[in-house]
Amino acid sequence: MRRRTFLSWASVGWVMSRVPAVLTAFLAACQGGQKSASGMQTVGKVAELDQKGFLQTESPAPIAVVRNPADPKSLLAVNPTCTHQGCLVAWKAERKAFECPCHGSAFAPDGSVQKGPATAALAKYEASIDGENVVVKL
């Protein structure tokens, strides 16, 4: 075997041995946030939730979290993508509802439809407080 051929194959082997590590790092970066052993994803801090009245994030998925108006010790988390035409809804604390700026749909804190044109509820997630963090199970 010629030296050039050997070095070419050795280089290919070295590059291929690095692919799993690169893919693992890439997937971890794409998932964002920190995932606990229970499968819960950190989406923000309790202090930020209490200061702003809601948390909204795009990573690892679109998620909106608010305190349950009926029980402030519990949290409600939904996918804030309007089920009518896909606009992102906004939390309106004074009305205790998520409202769509595009066509006026309104959703209760638990994601159920209060006012159309949307007819389907927002997807819900399990949410809780873990120390200083707000975590959501996706």
From TrEMBL:
Entry GO terms, CC: membrane
Keywords (A to Z) from UniProt: 2Fe-2S, Disulfide bond, Iron, Iron-sulfur, Metal-binding, Signal
Disulfide bond listed as a keyword: yes
InterPro entries given in the database record: Rieske_2Fe-2S, Rieske_2Fe-2S_sf, Rieske_Fe-S_prot, Rieske_Fe-S_prot_C
SUPFAM superfamilies: ISP domain (SSF50022)
Cofactor(s) the protein needs: [2Fe-2S] cluster
Protein name: Rieske [2Fe-2S] domain-containing protein
Organism: Leptolyngbya boryana NIES-2135
